[in-house]
Amino acid sequence: MTLLAAEGLNKRFGGVVAAKDVSFALAAGEMLAIIGPNGAGKSTTFNMVGGQLAPSSGRVLLAGRDITGLPPREVCRLGVGRTFQVAQTFLSMSVAGNVQMALIAHHGRTRDVVADAASLYRAEALALLAQVGMAEAADRPIGELAYGDVKRVELAIALAAAPKLLLMDEPTAGMAPRERAALMQLTAGIARGKGIGVLFTEHDMDAVFAHADRILVLVRGEVIAEGSPESVRANPEVQRVYLGQSGHKAALRARRGAHG
């Protein structure tokens, strides 16, 4: 079943074409990575899906519903969660409090925050934190956590909205190699277990080739390749314009690691 479909997305900024006829589909429970060199149009495409940018033409469909050009708040309400390159959290609040705030917003109870914020959806927040391995840190201020743990909490925050689709912008940015692998493995397990589609951008080719089901390669705003990690890795055009020899080695390392 197709969860997300991008159909002929185009975006111009004056005379600059940032995305040209970008089309792809994403199934429930599938992880699709968008990769490409700097300036390839990854962020533009990503933001057209999430509502931060309206396409100049083309459509974005979520479970068959046209969400093209809807504002991010409305896109979120329809079942799209998001994490960011720099984690978006309330550093002065506890770990559980951050997740509770997301649950309060999701359930439309923001008027109850002043009186009941500490108790509202506490059990649900702890359950989400358990999913990402952070339940024991529930009452710690999030500002005390290592960055890799903060990214896990951010994932729990995104899951608080019970998303059908999860958008992850550079999810492993700023993390150590071991933390990157652990976060992507965790995300893949949750997504496949719950049937959540994941669209992510990433520069770490180890993370991409180890965990993506399919890969979309953009160069100068256009799709030059799409398919399984194996087919993308073997694509001569992708090798020439993006991966190169170092990327090829990273892909091989990722594949070996994924298979033990």
UniProtKB/TrEMBL annotation:
GO terms for molecular function: ATP binding. Pfam families: ABC_tran, BCA_ABC_TP_C. Residues 4-245 form the ABC transporter domain. InterPro entries: AAA+_ATPase, ABC_AA/LPS_Transport, ABC_transporter-like_ATP-bd, BCA_ABC_TP_C, P-loop_NTPase. SMART domains: AAA. Keywords: ATP-binding, Nucleotide-binding, Transport. PANTHER family: AMINO ACID ABC TRANSPORTER ATP-BINDING PROTEIN (PTHR45772:SF7), CONSERVED COMPONENT OF ABC TRANSPORTER FOR NATURAL AMINO ACIDS-RELATED (PTHR45772). This is ABC transporter ATP-binding protein. PROSITE patterns: ABC_TRANSPORTER_2.
